[in-house]
Amino acid sequence: MRFADHDPLNRSRFPIDEWALTETEFGVDDMGRTETLFAVGNGYLGLRGNVEEGRDGHMHGTFVNGFHETWPIRHAEEAFGFARVGQTIVNAPDAKVIRLYVDDEPLVITVAEILAYERRLDFRLGSLSRSIEWRTPSGKRVLITSRRMVSFTDRHLALIDYEVELLDADAAVTISSQILNRQDGRDEYRSGVQEPQGAFDPRKAEQFTERVLQPRVKRAEGSRYMLGYQCTNSGMTLAIGAEHSIETENEFTESGTIGDDLAKHIYRVHAKQGQPIRITKAISYHTARTVPARELVDRADRTLDRAAELGVAEIFDQQHSWLDDYWARSDVEIEGHPSLQQAIRWNLFQLAQATARTDGDGVAAKGVSGSGYGGHYFWDSEIYVLPFLSYTAPVVARNVLRFRQRMLDAARGRALELNQRGALFPWRTINGLESSAYYAAGTAQYHIDADIAFALCQYVAATGDVDFLARGAIDILVETARMWEDLGFWRTGADDVFHIHGVTGPDEYTTVVNDNLYTNVMARANLAAAASAVDNLQVNDPVAYHKLVARLEVTPAEVASWRRAAAHMHIPFDEQLGIHPQDSAFLQKELWDLENTPEDRRPLLLHYHPLVIYRFQVLKQADVVLALYLQGDRFSTEAKRANFEYYDPLTTGDSTLSAVVQSIIAAEVGYHELAMRYFRSALFVDLADLHHNAADGVHVASTGGVWAALVSGFGGFRDHNGVFSFDPRLPDDWRKLTYRLTLRGTRVRVELEPESITFVAEVGDEVRVKVRGVDVVVTADAPVTVPLDGQGPRLYGAPTMRDVTGSRRADGTLLTASIPTLSLDVDAEETAIPVD
Predict the structure, then answer these.
(1) CA 503 – CA 565 distance, rounded (Å)
(2) Which of 175, 284, 328, 733 is deepest in the core (most CB within 10 A)?
(3) E strand intervals along 192-250
(4) DSSP string, 254-279
């Protein structure tokens, strides 16, 4: 069976449904994974997919975007400029908990006798539903159904419907609805930090060892409960509120208790056979950096009042309507592959859950689905998530960029600390301060400045929102350009050349190098974009230009120096191999023998000291190949293919950021089957837990990359310098690929078939695009179909690297070699097609 045809999910447990992820059997062994897969969120608030009964679980997680605790980073050996303040997302008190007792026997799903089970995450309704038939120890059958959602229309609201029905006998039923601040030592409620639990893994969040959440408010009024807290060190505040209602024909009583860490509303019901008990629980979370908890309680009151006025049915209807609009803007459809379609929509739904209501916050690496990477924001947002937002949800994209704009002062301070002009954004952060204790693979990734500038320019090109620049976002371009000009230096000789030394590119297996190709290419674009933006502002908005000059003291001479540095940027190239070296010394290193590295020694970062890895030609993720994608108009087709063929065999894929980029370039240069393999690897990375850490949360950047692999890889879409172009590569067995793009206010549906590409303007007036160099005008009343003459070259197999003068170490894992030679690993059943 070909990899491209293999379905990695157990379809007897997870049946195919193009609009939902359904589970038909509860799994104890992979609760961490399914808690992530069935999480619900809106970008601000996230509830992991724990069962409501709230007992056994991998992590009883509730996360609020940006709500974090700080702690002092203690370095074994100090040096000036090291990151000083660690930041870790706080696992907030859990309001999902609804404990059920029948004749005083608790429902504990991991040990209960379950006669029927289904759990369903619906991508159109935006809700998680569950149905269980439980046989109690005394033999009574009980049907439990629940429905859970986090609102896309009300940022601070979540809702749970919980219904219990006795099927064949009467019984005493107790339902205890709780807000629980867990203090059992497994969850992250204590300050002071220790290494992540279990084996060393830097991808996991730190664990707190002392109390984090200090009680500030507790209030119970009728069936409404409020708890308020303040973080011990960061000072951030949190309020959680829950209100309850019951519908039943049965006799019942209700009572409640509240303490610092536990609020309970209890229903005691004399349940009759066939008479259901329905509990509705409205939940609100509010957080702030400086606002007192008591004020946040007032805000939570207003949220719950509003929910009560709307009613449950209306809240769920609004959720459905919001998603109707979301899918109209964002859906990607493939015909004839329901398994892939389901996985695609799960990934796109995760993008909504990670971004929709960020409302000025950033997009964390795990969104609000888990604690992985400590809830930090990385460059992943700008390169992998912002493109999706810029072309489908520009308002959300603008908000995420405004979040970076608000970080600018802190970035200026960090640049000064590192002896640079301008601004240096942190590699990983929550509050704007650098939180990476390992500078070689963290702070040294200066490319984040260029990544943010790239995302800003891409957003403006996609939307035409030059006003965003004029209103202050241009400061990002100016200050990052200043940093690059100051960081780099001129080496004079026959030709003046601008170099950048002592940086780390996206590939974290190669650190603190000179002239990293990705960094130099992206810095060149950053410098040129800043110069162009200032010049355009001077011409088109003189008032805003003069404000910029007064604000930042920008001079024409400085702008000219950016343009000169960009024009003379050193772009490494090796004439002998015909490729761009990843950095100035990369090709001088030994080769790592990935083919003979045991699977139990991967990912490499968990099994080898960094110094071991740094000595070899081996990549954690696409580096040069990412530059080929983002700055594709600066490389020839031949250069792209040569670079891809060199670096692909060296890339471990230990980062989930890699496969999507490899898929895009593989499709472009002709490795179509390989492109599909990489695409599927990214598509199922969480669904099938391919990296064995889905329990820590969704890989949000990878979900954004899945969209890019479809739209930019197979769909062939590019936006270079504001020119929208299409050069598609439809997979052989796909009959049709349909996706949507919002281009300068016009939403275009793109329908790609083997022999044609069709553009339909669904919203808006007109947009101009290019299809393989041919100008096309798409208007609202005139769909345009362009014939396609083939889908480009087909290269079978995958690039492989063979050693010429190799020798192996005693353990057989490492290989020393001189310059590698390349060959194609040709499938025995197929014949390679010659390529010009």
Answers:
(1) 17
(2) 284
(3) 193-194, 207-208, 213-221, 224-231, 237-248
(4) EEEEE-SSEEEEEEEEEEPTT--EEE
Whole-angstrom distance, CA of residue 780 vs CA of residue 706: 29
Q: Is the pLDDT of residue 482 over 90?
A: yes
What is the rounded CA–CA span in Å between residue 239 and residue 218? 10
Catalytic positions are 508
Give percent above pLDDT 70 in the chain. Answer: 92
CA–CA dist 166, 358 (Å, integer): 42
Contact predicate 568/783, CB 8 Å: no
Distance CA 42, CA 195 (A): 29
Tokens found for residue 18: 């193009």
How many residues are given for the chain? 836
Q: How many CA atoms lie within 13 A of 262 on its CB side?
A: 11
Q: What Rg value do the Cα atoms of the chain yield, rounded?
A: 27
CB 517 within 8 A of CB 505: yes
User: Per-residue confidence at 794, pLDDT binned at 50, 70, 90?
Assistant: confident
Signed CA dihedral, 309, 311, 317, 323: sign only: positive
Q: If you average pLDDT over residues 589-596, what whole number do you get?
A: 93
Where do the DSSP E strands lie in 315-457? 332-334
Largest CA distance in the chain: 93
Predicted structure pTM score: 0.93
Contact 702, 691 (CB under 8 A): no
- Cα 324 → chain centroid: 22
Count of C-beta atoms within a 10 Å radius of residue 682: 28
Name the residue type at position 279: I
Q: Residue range 639-662: average pLDDT?
A: 97
Taking a C-beta distance cutoff of 8 angstroms, is the pair 652, 588 a contact? no
Of the pLDDT bands very low, low, confident and very high (cuts 50, 70, 90), residue 793 is confident
- Return the SS3 of 74: coil
- pLDDT of 55 reads 82
Across the chain, how many H-helices and E-strands are there?
20, 38
Closest alpha carbon to 562 in 505, 516, 498, 615: 498
Closest CA to 483 of 525, 450, 518: 450
Task: Kindly state the DSSP code that residue 783 receives in the 8-state scheme.
Answer: -
Helices (H), 434-516: 447-463, 466-468, 474-487
Say if residues 728 and 788 touch (Cβ distance below 8 Å): yes
Copy the structure tokens of residue 399.
Answer: 């908000």
* Count of other CB atoms within 10 angstroms of residue 745: 15
Instruction: Judge whether 100 and 222 are in contact, CB under 8 Å.
Output: no
**Which of 642, 821, 681, 757 lies closest to 673, judged by CA?**
681
How many Å apart are CA 52 and CA 36, to the nearest integer?
A: 15
3-state helix, strand, coil in the chain (%, to 5): 35, 25, 40
